[in-house]
Amino acid sequence: MPVSLDAIPSPRELLAKHGLSPRKSWGQNFLHDRGIHAHIVRASKAAPGARVLEIGAGLGTLTAHLLATGAFVHAIERDRDLCTVLRAELGHLERFELFEADAVRFDYAQIEREHGQRPTIVGNLPYQLTGPLLFALLERHTATDTWVVMVQREVADRIASPPGSRRYGGISAALGRLRAITKVCDAPPGCFLPPPRVDSAVIALTPLPTPRGEVGDPKGYLALVRAAFSQRRKTLLNSLSTLAPKDQVRAWCEVAGVDPKLRAEALGPEAFAALQRARESEDA
């Protein structure tokens, strides 16, 4: 049964129908702007036969827009009341599947295993869980296609920042090694019910054909990047000394062709990958 865009209720209507209100403690802000919905759907390239995995489906308004394209939508939602709404509003549709689960702990390889397709990830990420969710997705990078996610605009700017810029940080280096990052659109507070106190933005993270720097141990790479940025005003020699003695850090830098007097913000993913390879060769 096709989904009619004209028949999709607004968040306000759905909350009233089911006798609910947003949970402030969970940071629930429901997107009601249909123009932003359209931007997200276009960026996801949802189409008949495609598979989309939606993080935090909420009241199902974005879910319904995705279903209207003919795509299969697998939705993750942890709020029991919202799961009741999703089952009532969309549960009769064959192309809809609901996982009542914690998105941080969800197995993102499950869809590819069961259906033989890498899903596109779509979601309005809770601000307090943005980092944990993105790193959970990184662990299943090869099992997922493009990610189209809503985050706080300040976080979006940080993620998309190039090396050497003031906002460039560990999450930029972690994601930038494997994904091309582009901004889809901004989403001011008025696009949500209730309006949050911060601006939001939608970004798309598309798998690169070849990573920016090969490493043998992806978790080791992330640990290296975290250590380098944990004290970002210090030089690499000092910040990486939390992982090994300074003599070893100097040796890694020499093998990688990196100046140990540089700060972490000066290094792109390729340089961090070279450092990680030097670290791995020492341990071999």
| Binned strand content | 15-25%
Choose one word for the global shape. elongated
Number of domains: 2
User: Structural class, judged by helices and strands?
Assistant: alpha/beta
- Under CATH, the homologous superfamily of the largest domain reads Vaccinia Virus protein VP39
Radius of gyration, in Å, reads 21 Å
Order of the strands making up the biggest sheet: 4-3-2-5-6-9-7
CATH class bucket of the largest domain = Alpha Beta
Gross CATH architecture of the largest domain: 3-Layer(aba) Sandwich
State the CATH topology of the largest domain: Rossmann fold
Please give the number of β-strands.
9
Biggest sheet record:
7 strands, mixed
Query: What is the distance, rounded to the nearest whole angstrom, between the alpha carbons of the first and last residues?
Result: 57 Å
* Distinct helical segment count: 12
Indicate the mean pLDDT.
Answer: 95
| Helical residues, percent | 25-40%
Low-confidence blocks of residues: none
Structure, described:
By secondary structure, the protein is of the alpha/beta class. It folds into 2 domains: about 5-205, Vaccinia Virus protein VP39 (Rossmann fold, 3-Layer(aba) Sandwich), CATH 3.40.50; about 220-284, Helicase, Ruva Protein, domain 3 (Orthogonal Bundle), CATH 1.10.8.100. It has 12 helices and 9 strands. It has helices spanning about 10-15, 35-45, 60-65, 80-90, 110-115, 130-140, 155-160, 170-175, 220-230, 235-240, 245-255, 270-284, and strands spanning about 30, 50-55, 70-75, 95-100, 120-125, 145-150, 180-185, 190-195, 200-205. The strands form 2 sheets. Strands 4-3-2-5-6-9-7 form a 7-stranded mixed beta sheet. It has a two-stranded antiparallel ribbon with strand order 1-8. Helix 3 links the parallel strand 2 (about 50-55) and strand 3 (about 70-75).
